[in-house]
Amino acid sequence: MAEAQLCGLQDEFTCSVCLDTLTDPVTIPCGHSFCLKCLMDCWDQSQLCSCPQCRHYFTTRPALRRTTLHNEVIKKLKKTTISPPPSPPPPSKNYAGPGDMECDFCTGKKFRAVKSCLTCSASYCWTHLQLHYEVAALMHHKLVDPDRNLKEKLCEKHQKSLEIFCKTDEMCICMMCVVTGHKNHEMVELEMEREEKQKQLGATLNDIKRGLEEREKTLKETRRAMEEMKMSVKRDVEENKKSFTGLIRCIEEADRKLTERIREQEKRETEKAEGVMEQLKKEIEELKRREAELKELSETKDHLHFLQVSSTLHRESDQTGVCETREHLQRNLKFPFFFSFLLFSAPEAPVFILQPPEPQSRDDFLKYFCPLTLDMNTANRDLHLSEGNKKVTFKGTKAEYPDHPDRFDRWPQVLCREALTGTRCYWEVEYGTGVLSTHHTFCDPPLVTQRVLP
């Protein structure tokens, strides 16, 4: 065997019949393991079934089951080989330079380490490494490329190299752990687990890239909305000043108050926009940092380091709060600054009324859009509500609504829950077959009713 930590396990994986490493191992009730063929040959040559090692007799031939755990460990043993000694480097490159690992056994000026021994937990230059290829007791040690974190690659309990990943306990273990504390657990080699984790890492990177794209898009749209808001404010201020030029002192006072109101609105919306932009910038910096870490991790050749670090990483793709804040902000930023009337307190001062321009396009009408929701407590039982109480359908069957004093009993009508406020209100209605009738019904508060006739 090629590794010192497995030398002590050689007897456990040796068949007492053929005195060789177990092949297709099976374990009998007394606890001893043998090659399947060796045990079958022994029992076929005798009328009695007994253990070839402890001579325990069995009244009936036991059912033989292959020992999967032993089989995996034996495969690992057979694959282990002793690495040939490295070629000596040129004398000019022997000394350790900046960034090189130094030999732990050199005195005076340190030579550069060419290998690290997991068994010795030390690093060696080419000269001191020769003992590992010449002394029989050292030839079975596990040599790896120079590594500054040797302790992290050793089992804390057995001080052996970590070479197996236990999927049951989600941890890296050594070969001693395989046959002691992790029996009957699901185990794979580090390379196989690395492949699986690599796929998960790729999915996380994709999520981060999408998150970056969406947040950068949100930042761009928010910046554009803020610029539009500032331009709108600038236009409003200029038009306001032009409208009040040459008016008497009371008009100038009204001009000042109106400008202050607009500036206050600008300040509030600017603070909201800057807050969202600052948060987006922080999230973008964090995502870029995590992206760089994940890329660096995905390119590492150290399987153990990859598995130990990747388990601490989590996907972060939730941006609902940012999107909702952006939509709310953009909706407020695009809302026109207008006032229906201005009243002045100066004695006998005239009253000036500033009316907004008449809407021409659908976009102009949408500025006065009022979202409406149908009230189930008022719906006639011939009307069926759906799609979050946004859709009403007339059907011949009665809907099972609970009794309510506000419900229409005679006519197929339904009220909306929201009241209409402001000087202008706009909403849209889609209808299919039948006749749609909408009219205002005044309640306390006033509501809108929509009626569908068959």
UniProtKB/TrEMBL annotation:
<dbReference type="Pfam" id="PF13765">
    <property type="entry name" value="PRY"/>
</dbReference>
<dbReference type="InterPro" id="IPR001870">
    <property type="entry name" value="B30.2/SPRY"/>
</dbReference>
<keyword id="KW-0862">Zinc</keyword>
<dbReference type="InterPro" id="IPR000315">
    <property type="entry name" value="Znf_B-box"/>
</dbReference>
<keyword id="KW-0863">Zinc-finger</keyword>
<dbReference type="InterPro" id="IPR058030">
    <property type="entry name" value="TRIM8/14/16/25/29/45/65_CC"/>
</dbReference>
<dbReference type="InterPro" id="IPR003879">
    <property type="entry name" value="Butyrophylin_SPRY"/>
</dbReference>
<dbReference type="InterPro" id="IPR017907">
    <property type="entry name" value="Znf_RING_CS"/>
</dbReference>
<feature type="domain" description="B box-type">
    <location>
        <begin position="150"/>
        <end position="190"/>
    </location>
</feature>
<dbReference type="InterPro" id="IPR001841">
    <property type="entry name" value="Znf_RING"/>
</dbReference>
<protein>
    <submittedName>
        <fullName>Uncharacterized protein</fullName>
    </submittedName>
</protein>
<dbReference type="GO" id="GO:0008270">
    <property type="term" value="F:zinc ion binding"/>
</dbReference>
<feature type="domain" description="B30.2/SPRY">
    <location>
        <begin position="352"/>
        <end position="454"/>
    </location>
</feature>
<feature type="coiled-coil region">
    <location>
        <begin position="187"/>
        <end position="300"/>
    </location>
</feature>
<dbReference type="Pfam" id="PF13445">
    <property type="entry name" value="zf-RING_UBOX"/>
</dbReference>
<dbReference type="Pfam" id="PF25600">
    <property type="entry name" value="TRIM_CC"/>
</dbReference>
<dbReference type="InterPro" id="IPR043136">
    <property type="entry name" value="B30.2/SPRY_sf"/>
</dbReference>
<feature type="domain" description="RING-type">
    <location>
        <begin position="15"/>
        <end position="55"/>
    </location>
</feature>
<dbReference type="Pfam" id="PF00643">
    <property type="entry name" value="zf-B_box"/>
</dbReference>
<dbReference type="InterPro" id="IPR027370">
    <property type="entry name" value="Znf-RING_euk"/>
</dbReference>
<keyword id="KW-0479">Metal-binding</keyword>
<keyword id="KW-0175">Coiled coil</keyword>
<dbReference type="InterPro" id="IPR013083">
    <property type="entry name" value="Znf_RING/FYVE/PHD"/>
</dbReference>
<dbReference type="InterPro" id="IPR006574">
    <property type="entry name" value="PRY"/>
</dbReference>
<dbReference type="InterPro" id="IPR013320">
    <property type="entry name" value="ConA-like_dom_sf"/>
</dbReference>
<dbReference type="GO" id="GO:0005737">
    <property type="term" value="C:cytoplasm"/>
</dbReference>
<dbReference type="InterPro" id="IPR051051">
    <property type="entry name" value="E3_ubiq-ligase_TRIM/RNF"/>
</dbReference>
